[in-house]
Automatic annotation (TrEMBL):
GO terms for cellular component: mitochondrial matrix. It comes from the Eukaryota. The lineage of its organism: Eukaryota, Metazoa, Chordata, Craniata, Vertebrata. May function as protein hydroxylase; can catalyze auto-hydroxylation at Leu-110 (in vitro), but this activity may be due to the absence of the true substrate. Required to induce programmed necrosis in response to DNA damage caused by cytotoxic alkylating agents. Acts by triggering the collapse of mitochondrial membrane potential and loss of mitochondrial function that leads to energy depletion and cell death. ALKBH7-mediated necrosis is probably required to prevent the accumulation of cells with DNA damage. Does not display DNA demethylase activity. Involved in fatty acid metabolism. This is Alpha-ketoglutarate-dependent dioxygenase alkB homolog 7, mitochondrial.
Length: 217
């Protein structure tokens, strides 16, 4: 009966990279909170981090702004990329966005130091449309989504280096997202030690707002 056991497992919602408070929320978000482990090859990971490192190194890590969602970070918004990186971003666009969606022209690059973390927030609907897609580099991390009205409903996404995550629709609007700090970085029982992490985040433009996108999301 090993065969039917495997079949039953395969039909359960969720995966090795997504956990949730229950089967209903997993099923409800299975197309709107998505993780694709190994989206980047090792070469592609290196291409991106080698290109980003000198630009990030010029900046200082920021801490403890009283209202800030992000602690221990430096960031940049990048619009000029090497050809190799453009090909990677093109793959992200095809994988995560509908052909009709327009992307913010500047890609958000966020560098979290080992103690850095992102508190729960929902990206501003003024500056960001229905879809957020992020590549993770260097360190694994755990992203937690919590329903803004019903905090008992949550998901955890395991973001390994080279993975792509996509938040769209309900996962983007009805759930907050956060990146857990090292002390709290668990995927279920599994400890996910945090070190420095770089994310490369593409966002769609809010719909019905033609013209110049605002400078930041
Ligand atoms: C953000 C954010 C997630 C990430 O900058 O708004 O949620 O993957 N970033 O770094
Ligand atoms: Mn965010």
């Amino acid at each position: 009966m090993a065969g039917s056991g495997r079949l039953a497992l395969r039909t359960l919602p969720g995966s090795g990279w997504v956990r949730g408070s229950g089967p209903a929320v997993l099923r409800r978000l299975q197309d709107s909170a998505v993780v694709q482990p190994g989206f980047l090859s090792k070469d592609e990971e290196e291409t991106l981090s080698r290109e980003l490192e000198p630009e990030l190194r010029r900046r200082r890590y920021e801490y403890d702004h009283w209202d800030a969602a992000i602690h221990g970070f430096r960031e940049t918004e990048k619009s000029r990329w090497s050809e190799a990186s453009r090909a990677i971003l093109q793959r992200v666009q095809s994988a995560a966005f509908d052909p009709g969606q327009t992307l913010l022209s500047r890609v958000h690059v966020l560098d979290l130091e080992p103690q850095g973390y992102i508190k729960p927030h929902v990206d501003s609907v003024k500056f960001c449309g229905a879809t957020i897609a992020g590549l993770s580099l260097l360190s694994p991390s755990v992203m937690r989504l919590v329903h803004t009205q019903e905090p008992g409903q949550w998901l955890e996404l395991l973001l390994e280096p080279g993975s792509l995550y996509i938040l769209r629709g309900s996962a983007r609007y009805d759930f907050s997202h956060e990146i857990l700090r090292d002390e709290e970085s668990f995927f279920g029982d599994r400890r996910i030690p945090r070190s420095r992490r770089i994310s490369v985040i593409c966002r769609s433009l809010p719909e019905g707002q033609p013209g110049q996108p605002p400078p930041a999301c």
